[in-house]
Amino acid sequence: MKIKNICCIGAGYVGGPTMSVLALKNPNIKVTVVDINQDRINSWNDENLGDLPIYEPGLEEIVNEARGRNLFFSTDVEKAIDEAEMIFISVNTPTKTYGKGKGMAADLKYIELCARQIAKVATTDKIVVEKSTLPVRTAQAIKDILDNTGNGVKFQILSNPEFLAEGTAVQDLLTPDRVLIGGEESEEGTIAMNSLVEIYATWIPKENILTTNVWSSELSKLVANAFLAQRVSSINAISELCEVTGADVGEVSRAIGMDSRIGPKFLKASVGFGGSCFQKDILNLVYIAKTYGLNEVADYWEQVIIMNDYQKRRFADNIVSTLYNTVSGKKITFLGWAFKKDTNDTRESAAIYVADALMNEQAEIIVYDPKVSEKRIYEDLDYLGSRSPEENRRLLKVVKDPYIASEEAHAIAILTEWDEFIEYDWKKIYDSVVKPAFVFDGRKLLDAELMSKIGFDYSSIGISKTQNK
């Protein structure tokens, strides 16, 4: 089946970049990305490519080439569904905050709404592709909804999980390790899978495109993120051991990363992992295990989350204890709010939780991040519900200049590994802060010897204070 018209429901961090690359590589296919958020669609259509709603290196150039040719962004969801032969579902699947599975299970209400809208609008056969990260057997739920519409339309459901790392999403899309497509084990399912294989094969070698059954595809996404998160939590557990023994976590990471059985990726110690995927997917895995009575399996994976939460709490506690056990009324500068560099995504960012802990101690936080908006930062804090929006705005301010942010600061905390932080005039910053001048490096980013030479009392994740002197 030759696909000529694709619709993607959801113009977020997955849908927008994925469809942009897909359109770039398939100029003969019309790709329409739809979203009910008018502001988001306006941003995707903005003439100023610097105002795209998502920051990813290389994305502006791709959108510039494909947009208006065969890539379109719209709020007319029903028209796009009606015209498409293939529909990608790429909407948010947050962790439930209510009811059964609260705090662990994925909230599938947006997925169900998409399925019901497709069922309502569709008058011709469709291939529906799960692009959102979903718990195992969600495809069956979608199929149940679609097959009971009474319209006589036939649907095939495919699972096509994304394996993107934010900050390198464009490169991950252009040269992926693999593309995974799960489908029904039937003649119709095979035809549907082959239709999607042919789209990806315009730029990806076919040997890197894997086809499986739907359930294997859905579970593979959760397990991949769980394994990666496990590595981050493992090295973060070792970082504390390094701090008390005099070892250097960077040297330990380098030594074990050279073991071919282990490899170097995801062994960089930090204040904790963030992003939309790791925590959500592990909690999903925990919930599935508990649902089937596999309590030991659930406890094992839940420990990865517990270690990550502890690392963030430990970082905040270290700031308080170092600043003579009180930060009340003290100005603490945060450099970075995004959960990692080269993205403006802040979901589950360690900065949110470190700030919340310090604000509970009545610290005054000043935030600078080169890509995250003031609006987004306040939304992150308000979502926690720890205090009123007015109190959040009283205790935390956002500025657009790192040197202004650092003036009269009692401490500086590095929460995101933006490259520009390395290049700052740290002597200028030292001259403007309250003495003694404390820097807490949650990303092991700066040169400890240089910082100490300037005069800073410098602390870094995974290195003992004696090593910094």
Q: Any overview of this molecule?
A:
This protein has two domains: 5-204, NAD(P)-binding Rossmann-like Domain (Rossmann fold); 226-468, NAD(P)-binding Rossmann-like Domain (Rossmann fold, 3-Layer(aba) Sandwich). By secondary structure, the protein is of the alpha/beta class. The protein has a six-stranded parallel beta sheet, sandwiched between helices. The chain has a six-stranded parallel beta sheet with strand order 11-10-9-12-13-14, with helices on both faces. A two-stranded parallel sheet has the order 7-8. Helix 1 packs across helix 3 (59-66) and helix 5 runs parallel beside helix 6. The model has no long low-confidence stretch (mean pLDDT 93). The longest helix has 32 residues, at 214-245. The protein starts with a strand and ends with a helix. It is globular, with a radius of gyration of 24 Å. The chain has helices at residues 15-25, 38-44, 59-66, 77-83, 109-121, 138-146, 169-174, 187-200, 214-245, 249-257, 278-291, 295-322, 350-360, 374-384, 389-395, 402-406, 426-432, 448-454, 465-468, and strands spanning 5-9, 30-34, 71-74, 86-89, 126-130, 155-159, 179-183, 209-213, 331-335, 364-368, 396-398, 411-414, 438-441, 457-460.
